[in-house]
Write a structure and sequence with these properties.
Low-confidence stretches: 163-167, 204-214
Strand order of the largest sheet: 2-5-8-1-9
Shape: flat
Largest sheet: 5 strands, parallel
Distance between the termini: 48 Å
Number of strands: 11
Structural class: alpha/beta
Radius of gyration: 30 Å
Mean pLDDT: 80
Strand content: 5-15%
């Protein structure tokens, strides 16, 4: 199968956790749960016969305050296995009551993500052939094919000598010119030459009135139908040979792939490998003894239930069954409890993990250890201006302690608090970076206390809450 690499993960649970550790600090229990869920998918694929269809994923409910890594775990998990991934806030289905967005858009979005992945994989597979065809098209621009000249009178009276001479002589000259241009292209001598190419105009949305409503999928289908009926519009652009090569390679790659086969495979990938992250699930829980708007919240739960239980949703690429889609729900559950969800929905999330609030040691690791650590990001950004940032260990410890204190004394927003503190800490350096004479900046504990003096002194801290 062409899409064998999509959604397939041969790693053991221990290896999966090790991969997640590169980006996410702590939360060992949550990582262990998702690693087991992923490995069970691999195990189910090794089964044969009816048993393979009987084994369904065990959905996960993550409980923890914002900024502790719930979304990041799910997102990195999807990247790890190259699986179609959709993140959706459960609260958006309550925004306009019962006539809000259809919950089936979750599955349609998943199908869209799968199509993009399969299409890109197939295009990558034909890049070499597409590049060769693109070069031929560039040669056609520089050396147009000779036009056959015919003498109408000669053809009428049977005199074809002139035509015969043309067809014999022209191809030799044409081929010689083509070979010469090809050599120059190979050497890269023509990369900056301007040529005129014809590109297809991107279609603009024709039906905006369906957007944001439960009929939006119908709107998409009508747009596709009208788009196929209307002739493609083209326009000419002057671009360099290097840009033309990219344009032609893209066009040729699209011609080489079969979109019907892509759609079919994408639906299978979405069904077997899709991951849906349902965030803010606690916001649609119904609290005991309340009514009014909570009726709508319970309605949203009941709408989500068939998708999680397993149903078939019609998408423009074909039917997608949700029986084997992995659902990961998450919420802070400060005001509500998991038991406030309707019993049917609770039963569909048998695995529950509680993510711990971040402490000082966690903040220190977040600042320095992950591959995309915040301090690494700021160093890289300021290096573009020639500024070298040096963070002393005591400064990192001080920043971590401040983040912990602020989260304890006000709203706990987890690791996102570090963004606030670092922006404030490096505000002057970021502003003055282009004009600084001294390009080496040392950030020690005294520097942190000076720049964040207001936070150290002001115990209210309200002006720094995100």
């Amino acid at each position: 199968m062409a899409n064998a690499a999509l959604g397939v993960n041969e790693q053991t649970p221990r290896q999966i956790v090790a991969e997640l550790d590169k980006y996410i600090v702590g939360q060992a229990e949550a990582k262990k749960s998702v690693a087991i869920a992923l490995r069970n998918r691999w195990r189910s694929r090794q089964l044969t016969g009816p048993m393979q269809d009987e084994v369904i994923p065990k959905n996960i409910l993550m409980i923890g305050s914002t900024g502790v890594g719930k979304t990041e775990i799910a997102r990195r998990l999807a990247k790890l296995v190259k699986a179609p991934f959709v993140k959706v806030e459960a609260t958006k289905f309550t925004e306009v009551g019962y006539v809000g967005r259809d919950v089936e858009t979750i599955v349609r979005d998943l199908a869209e993500a799968a199509v993009r992945m399969v299409r890109q994989q197939r295009m990558d597979a034909v890049q070499e052939k597409a590049a060769a065809l693109a070069e031929e098209r560039i040669l056609d621009v520089f050396v147009p094919q000779p036009k056959k000249t015919q003498n109408p009178l000669g053809r009428l009276f049977g005199g074809g000598d002139d035509e015969a001479e043309t067809t014999e002589q022209e191809p030799k000259k044409y081929q010689a010119g083509r070979d010469w241009v090809k050599k120059r292209l190979t050497k890269g001598e023509l990369e900056k030459e301007l040529i005129e190419v014809e590109v297809e105009e991107s279609s603009r949305p024709m039906i905006g009135m369906f957007s944001g409503s439960s009929l939006e999928n119908m709107g998409d289908n009508i747009q596709d139908m009208l788009g196929n009926m209307m002739p493609k519009r083209h326009r000419k652009r002057k671009v360099t040979v290097a840009e033309a090569r990219k344009i032609f390679t893209q066009q040729e790659a699209e011609k080489l792939i079969d979109m019907d086969a892509v759609s079919e495979e994408a639906c299978q990938v979405a069904e077997r490998c899709g991951i849906v992250f349902l965030d803010e699930i606690d916001k649609v829980a119904v609290h005991d003894g309340t009514g009014g708007a909570d009726v709508s919240r319970e309605g949203v739960q009941r709408d989500i239930l068939p998708i999680v239980e397993g149903t078939t949703v019609m998408t423009k690429y074909g039917p997608v069954k949700t029986d084997h889609v992995l659902f990961i729900a998450a919420g802070a559950f400060h005001l509500a409890k998991p038991s406030d969800l309707i019993p049917e929905l609770q039963g569909r999330f048998p695995i529950r993990v509680e993510l711990q609030s971040l402490r000082k040691e966690d903040f220190e690791k977040i600042l320095t250890e992950p591959q995309n650590a915040l301090l690494k990001q700021y160093r890289a950004l300021l290096e573009t201006e020639g500024v070298e940032l040096e963070f002393r260990p005591e400064a990192i410890s001080r920043i971590a302690q401040l983040a912990c204190d602020v989260n304890d004394q006000s709203e706990d927003i987890g690791a996102r608090r570090l963004h606030t503190l670092l922006e404030k800490l490096l505000e002057d350096v970021s502003f003055d970076a282009p004009d600084m004479e001294e390009k080496h900046v040392v950030v020690d504990e005294a520097y942190v206390d000076t720049k964040l003096a207001d936070i150290v002194v002001n115990r209210d801290l309200t002006q720094y809450i995100l």
